[in-house]
Design brief:
There is one protein chain. The chain is α/β, with parallel strands linked by helices. It has a single domain, classed as NAD(P)-binding Rossmann-like Domain (Rossmann fold, 3-Layer(aba) Sandwich). Helix content is 44%, strand content 10%. A four-stranded parallel sheet has the order 1-2-3-4, sandwiched between helices. Helix 2 (46-73) runs parallel beside helix 3. The longest helix is centred in the middle third of the chain and has 28 residues, at 46-73.
Length: 177
Amino acid sequence: MNLEKSKENDFKEINNVIEKEFGKLDGLLNNAGFLGDKTPLENYNIDVWKKVFDINVHATFLLTKSLLPALRISKEGSIIFTSSGVGRVGKAYWGAYSLSKFAIESLGQILSDELENTSNIRVNSINPGAVRTQMREQAYPAEDPKINKEAKEILNAYLYLMSDKSIGISGDSIDAQ
């Protein structure tokens, strides 16, 4: 699915298919991300800026909103947003990516607060930290990738928040490392 170009009905169709095939959804991991440019704000290309927000914020919001009906059916649903260290503290040259991750942190907090007394859905975010990914290599081209953990090494943080062991934890932003 092209997250940059998808419309709200595309996301609603995902919910329809999940409910038809599985009856409910127990967990949602929002992990899509686009880095964009690392450049001063005054030089930021508006088309790249929009693409970052379309993928990182708008698609995440629409997918989450559209899947809430299937998550509400679950006995204990879990939503996880993948954030970033630059989504907690702004950093020069990270522009749209940093702002999009601040938005994701806020989205998780707001949704957690809204769902607290109206559902059994818990909402949290995770900062994966330095992980050996293509995006990390793009962001830090001079860094030796071997110094970073592989994605499978931080998986336990995600599994914990998806499991029943995290029942009662909502509105938190944790570090995977």
